[in-house]
Amino acid sequence: MRLISLFGLPFVAALASAAVPFKGCQHKVKESIYGPPRGWSRHTPAPKHHMLELKIALPQHKFAELEQHLWEVSDPNHSRYGAFLSKEETDALTAPHPDTLDIVNEWLASYGLTEESLVRSSANDWVTIRVPVSLAEEMLDTTYYVYKHAETGDSIVRTTSYSLPENLHNHVDLIQPTTMFARFEAFKSTLHWANQSAVLSTSTGTITGPAGNQINASCNSTITISCLKQLYNSVSYNTSATNGNQLGITAYLDQYANNMDLQQFFQLENPSAYGSNYTFVSVNGGLNNQTYAAAGSEANLDTQFGFGLTWPTARTFYSTAGEPPFDPDLVTPTDTNEPYSYWLDYVLSQPTLPQTISTSYGDNEETVPFTYASRVCRGMAILGTRGVSILFSSGDSGVGDGNADPATQQCYSNDGLNVTKFLPNFPASCPYVTTVGATVNIPETAVYFSGGGFSDYFVRPAYQEAVVTEYLEKLAPGTYEGLYNTYGRAYPDVSAQGVDFLVVYQGQNALLAGTSCSAPTFASFVSMLNDARINAKKTPLGFLNPFLYSSGYTALNDITVGNNPGCGTEGFNATTGWDPVSGFGTPNFEKLLALVLDMP
Question: What is the per-residue pLDDT for 17?
Answer without folding.
Answer: 37
